[in-house]
Structure formats: structure tokens, C-alpha cells
Input
Amino acid sequence: MKKKYLKPKINLKILIPLYIILIIGIYMVYSSSKIWANYMYHDSFYYFKRQLIFLILGTIMLIIGYKMNLNKVKKNINKILLLSILLLILVLIPGLGISRNGSKSWFGIGDFLFQPSEFFKIAIVLYMARKLTDYYLTTNKFFKTIIPFLLPALVGFLLIMLQPDFGSGIVMLAAVLIMCMVSKSKFKNYLIIGLIGIFGLGILISSATYRIDRIVAFFNPWKDPLGSGFQIIQSLYAISPGGLMGRGIDGSFQKFFYLPEPQTDFIFSIFAEEYGFIGSFVVIVLYIYLIDMCFKSAIKSKNEFASFIKIGFTSLIAVQVFINLGVVVGLLPVTGITLPFMSYGGSSLTLLMFSMGLILNQSLEEST
Amino acid sequence: MIYYTLKKKINVLRVIVIIMISCVILKLGYAQFVQYKKIDLKATDLWERSFPLEASRGNIYDCNMEVLASNLPTMSVVVIPFQVKDKETVSSKLASILECDKDRLFEKISKKASIVRLSPEGRQISDEKAYLINKEKLSGVYVVQDSKRYYPYNELLAPSLGFVGIDNQGLAGIEAKYDNYLKGKNGSLNYKMDAKGGLMNGFISRMESPVSGLSLQLTINLQIQEIIERELTNAYAKYNPDTILALAMNPNNGEILAISNRPTYNPNNYQDASQEVYNRNLPIWMNYEPGSTFKSITFAAGLEENKFDMFKDTYYDTGSVVVEGRTIKSWKKGGHGLQTFLEVLENSSNPGFVEISRRLGTKTLYEYVKKFGFSKKTGVDLVGESSGIFFNYDDYGELENATTAFGQGISTTAIQLVRAFSALINGGRLYVPKISKSLILTSNKEVLFDFPTIVENEQVISKKTSELMRYALESVVSKGSGRKAYIEGYRVGGKTGTAQKAKNGVYLENEYILSFLAGAPMNDPKIVVYVAMDNPKSTIQYGGTIIGPIMKNILEDALVALNVSKSNEGIDFEYTWMDTKTYEVENYIGLDKSKVKSKYFRFQFVGDGNKVLDQLPKVGEKIEEGKTIVLFLG
Output
């Protein structure tokens, strides 16, 4: 034997589209935020500089995720899950958690913030992956096997809803359910869950008036154009005039204070305004390609644990992409979810990159 | 390798995810293609702001292109609220300079608008205030160029000209009527504004240039207008009437040469005048019984219908005549006795006109009144014309016919009288009066459009009748009641009027409207002038004696302004004891000082010597009795 062991190659079909999106993303953070940044901090590059740091940190996180020996982690998954649930509880305690935009979702000092719900997402995916792998053959028994598996996720969901962070909760829950659905369990069971889910969602929505407003605004944004319909209308004012070709580089009008915080949830609106249907189409196809390549690598995995990890993290990203774009184009009500890899935000970006690292993880490619 | 069932499910998942995200593309396409037009329009409304660029208003000229209304550059204040840092200080500083309420100013500059024009407090401010504001160097406050309407001759032509408001919009008179032409098309500076009221940097603004308004040339002759204004001012001061008005027209085309009245106002400061003053253009608005001036119309009707030969046929005025039980008196006690019909007109004999009305009959005279354009608007292109009042034919009996014949029971406007009189002397053509001559391109004075001359009735009376009327009217001035308007060398023809004012159907004691309607020269009429004075105080109440001299002054100067030369062919002036006679100056040159004698003139000798070398005035000139002739001796 010339070589002791074959070093698995990193999957470039995932890495390349990912970095194309990241580069477009960081440029869009700059382009969409510069007016606000200049107004608030007298520095057009304020958000750009930070996002660049986050991107570097994210790349480090990606490498960590890539190099990490998941087989070791696998053994400690329960502890990690417990820790993440503990953090979710701690963040709710006054004095420990920090509120931003009405949600008590953050730990941290100054600008360096950490979102325990993001950590929980990773932990729950790892946990589900392990459970579904270990009990794969019995996963067809829905009530006996799947339901107990779902309990930690439901606990986490409730804790996240207490912050409240509806968006993160939904994304996490959706990813967990997708993981369960690809197991041997029957699809009809999810219809029942779906019905219960819709019922639960109805209660959740009606429990907060701002959520009712969002639903009303979704169906008729012009009813309250300066209130609940504001973001939808401003987003539409960006997207529609973009037309086929867009206004061109840096041509957005809506970033001139019309769209609040254009570098976060509605960054794609500005992109669609500047680059039109053609540009938007290319980026959405890039996302689809990236997600599909991740799923494809899940199929090619050497073991079920690797496959479920990839499905879980990919689903997290896919659901988030779908909800964010759906909101931006007016297909879904406003939820407050950022666009993965493009929207500004350190906590989100670094942990998403870490997730991508786990999807690309080399130890997963080793057969066990 | 993983389980086949897992692979199969992942493949299903792939398809579902692709389909779901593709839905986003469909919705995106819907928003960017289907909704594009609708949303883009709405969104453009959101971003775009425009700052009006005011078009400069067209000038108004007289017939010789003398400027009657133009624009003066002034300064106005605009504020860009976004750039104002300390709104409190800025509004209090501006308020103290502009002398206005600070809180209202604060409110204005706090508006979420990109540019606020401080109107009216900051419009058309004085240079001094502009200087003070500029000196303060307030950020976001700008003094910009603006324009203000300016009427160089102040009160001149004011009731017809009208005036403009603070935004240079025509509010009254010609300024209002022709506002669409004069105002031009305002342009705008379009620019993108951000949601905080600032300018979007880096986006080129669109500019729609303002289009200057067209200029308007009037038929008014500034020289004649000035003459009339002068005479009105003098008479208004001297006789203190309620109102006085004057109107001059070219009888050959209906063009108004001058029009004015008192009381009047200064359009530069129209706010100081009452609405009654600036809204009433008296020569076209005020209507009243014309009195004897109307007899000229009746007389022409009689001539046209061959009811008398004015030179041969006679009428005996006994001093009164009874019509349907009502006695109509002659103004002269005992009447004028036996007169030809020409003398009936010259003497303004009421019973004589009752006779003419009887000869014409109700139907014919009624038709003539209508044909001459009375009791309806003349259609002059001025605002606020009245139609006057006349009987319905059903109520028009012999008595009404008789009073109408000498100008009572009918109510007319000055402009109706003037244009009817013009028809009398111009060969019988009744014009629609006009004051607008042409529309002119302001930049190069190119004429774009000439307002047409409109003939309402080609032949109200025949050319022959018109010729007779010219003679008859000249005769009135030379020999009859209009003698005070006689001008040596100009053949003036006209008719005086003295009408008792009526209020609620009852004639007022000692309140008269004195008037004079005249044209000149009678061989080739160039101008018709009408002057009427309402209720002059403490003076003899006859049109001829008071208005006559005013008419004379107007005509004498106006005919010079129109370059009409003097001639001596007219009907000789007939003197009464009241009049001063004129005599031709004889030749004194060459005579000895001792031989110089005259029945009519006095002499003044200049120089030493006994022989007359030269004289002033020259031989053949007519001067009044008792005047002095200067003789140079050597």
C-alpha cells in the first residue's frame, strides 16, 4: 500500500456555490446598508466590515465543522442537547438574556452576541440524527418511536416561543419533522401532525396581536400601509420596479431609508430591485443547486448517521431560504427570518457556516 | 451505503424542495412582470418629488408695444427641512426677519417635505430682508429668485387690466381672462427623495423647463389712455362725482383705444382697494339711462327710414307734448319754437324727438334699438360686462317709445353707446368691441395670433344716413348743445346727455349723470370718445357745460396722438353771447407803430423803433377775441 488511507476530498459542488452566494451576500450587505450605515454611524462600510469579520469567523467555523470528529461528538450528543436546552432556559432569565427587537433571544456583551436557539438547532439535528440512525429500523412505528424522539424538539420549540422567536422555532421544528419524514415512518402520520400543527399554529398566532396583524397584512397589505403592511409594501416597491433587468449596480431606491434595515430580512428585496428577475433567478437557482447538492451528498453518504445529519442541516437551510424568499416576494406572511448566507448577522452566519462544515464533514465520509 | 428506502425518500424530498423554492420564482416573476406597471407607478410617487419652476408670465403691451404689465425679479425664501438642524432657532430667526408668527413658521419647516416654500410670508421679499436672511447663513434656508408682477403705470387701465395674486395667477380683468395664455407652463425640477426627506444622492434629477407665457398686445393706445386718465383724475378731484368713466374707441374696427374710470385702484397693491372698486369695470359694467346722447340713435333711425328731411322739414316745439296722458317737457322753458329737424337735434328738443318716435312707430324704433346692439352684451373681451335693460316688446307702448326716443326708460352701458355711435359715423357698421389685439411670443416679439375684428351687423344704417349723421353731429357741436367741445381745426361731432338718476323706479332730485358722446374728425372719423360723470357735486347739472370741456381736452390731445392733422373745412362755429369768438389775425408787418389797430385784439410791442418787423401769431391764424398779439419793432 502506497497510501495508508485515502484522504476524502472536500465536496466542491457544495463549497463553490456556497462561496458564490457568500460573496454576493457580503456585497449586498454593503450595498443595501451603506445609506443607513452612513446615516447612523457615519460609515458606509459599518455593516460590511462587520460582516467581513463574521465571514472570516464563519469560514473558521466551517473548517471546524469540517474537521470535527463527529463520531466522538455522537457519543456526547445527549450532553450537548441538555446544555443547549439549559441555555434556552437561561436566556429567558431576566438579567442574563438580552432583548433585541422585542425578543429575549441573546447572550453576550456589547456587539458580540450569541443566540442559544441557533445552538439548539445544531444540537437537536445532531440528536435526531443519532436517534433516527440508531432506531432506523423501528422508525415505522410512529407513536412508539418517533413521538418520543420529538419530545426534546417540542420542549426546545416551546422555550424558543417564550423568547419569543417564532421564526427560529418554526425552522427548527420543520427541519426536525423533515428528518422524521425521511425515516421509515408513514406519511399519513404527518398529516395528523400537520392538522395538529395548523391548530397549534392558529393558537400561537392568535396569542399575539402582532401575528394576527401580519396575517391580515399578508392578505391585504394596503389595509394598513404604514403599519403591519409596511414591510410587505416596501418590499414590493423594491421588487416590482426591478422588472426584468433591475436598476443595475447600486441602483436601488428603496435602500434610501424606505425599507427598514435592508441588510437583514429583506436583503433579497434590494437585490431583486438592483438586479431584476434575471439576477434573482440566478441566485435562487444557486440556492436550489446548493441545497440539492447537499441532499445528493446525503444520498451518497456511507452511513445513515451521516445521511441524517446532512438532511437535518440542509433542511434547516432549505426551510429558512424558502421562508425568507417567500416572505420577500409576498408568498408568505412576515416571520422575521433572515436569508442564509446573505443577510447581515454574525450569530446566524457563523453557525450556518458551521452547519455547512458539518454537512461537508470529513469524518462522516469514513465508513464505520 | 445507506438504506435504499432512505435514498428514495431523500429523492422525494429533493423534488419537493425544488418545487417549493420554484414557487418563489413564479411569485417573483408575477411581481416583476405582471404587477410591474402598477407598482412602479405607485413607487415612483413615493420616491419622486418635484419643485415647481415658475414660468415667467407674459407681458401686456399697448398697441405700440409700450409695456403695461411685466415682471420684476424678486427674492423668495425656500427651506429644505432635512437640512435644517435646529428648527427652533431657524424659525425664530426667520420669523423676526420676515415679521411673521414663529410657531406657524416652525410648523412649516417641520413638514416632512423635501422643499418648503414659505408662502406667503417668505414670497417676494424686499432686498433688505433677503440680505438679512443671507447674512444669517442658516443651513437649509435659501433665498431664491422669484418674480413679481409689475404695473409700471400703476392705476392706468387698472379696471380692465386686473391684477395677479401671490403666485402670479391672474385674479381679475385681462390678467384673469387671458391667464391661460399669459401664465405659461410651469416646469419642475424632479428628483428622488429618500424616506427621511433628503435628496437621494447620485440620482440625476429630471428637469422640465418652464415655458414662458405668451405676451398680449392690447388695442389700447397708451398716449390716449394717459390723456383719459389725466382728465378723469382732474374731473374726479374737481367735481367730486360718485363715479366718472371714459371710453375711447376706433370707430372703424371696434378697437378700444382707452378705457378707465374713477374710483380706481393700483394693481401693484390691489389688496388696499375694496372689491367693489376692482371688480367693477364701469364702462362695461355700469348701466343707466343714457339721456340725450341716445337721441343720436333715434335721429339716425328717423333719417334711415326717411321720416323727415333734416334740413327742410320742421317741427314746432311749444315746450311740451302729451303722450298717453303724460306731459313731456322741453328742457328750455317755452320750447325751442319752430325748428328744422337738424335743429331739433342741435337743441336736443325732447318734444321734437317724441315727434320722431311717433313718425317711426313703436315697432320700427324698437327694432332699431335692438339692431344698434342695446339691451345685450356687446361681446367685448373684458370680464364683467352688463347687458343693460330695455322693455319687453309686449310692454312697449307709445309712451315707452316716446321716452326711449330721448334716452329715458332704457338703460345702457358706455360701451354699448360707443359702439352704436361708431356705427352711426363709420358708414353703418356695428362692430364687436375688442381690447386684445394679438398674442405675441415673449422672447422675440413674434406675433402668433391676431384677434379677429368681428362685425356684428354690416349695415345698421346706410352709408348715406351715416354721412348725414356726421354732418348733424358736427352741427350739434358747432351750433348746438355740444359747443363746449368745439375744437378749432378739428371737426368734432357729438351729443351731450343729462340724465336724471333713478333709484327703485323713482327719479332722484338733483342727482344726474352727465355725459358726452363724441367722435372726430367728422370727415374721416378716427376716434369716438364717451365720458360720463355720475352725480357731480355743487355744479351746474348739464352734460354740455361740464363734460364738454373735458371732451375737448381729450379729443384735442388724442387727435394729435393719432396724428390727425387740423383742417378748416368744418362747419363754422356759431357764437352765442356766452362764447368767446375767434378772429383771423391780420397782417401788421411793415406797418408803422401808430397805424396798428384792432377791434378784437390787444398788442404788446417788443423792441425799439416804429416799424413792425414780425408778429406772433402769424397772419391768418384764428385766435380768441381779446388776446394779445406780440409785435417786434425795429
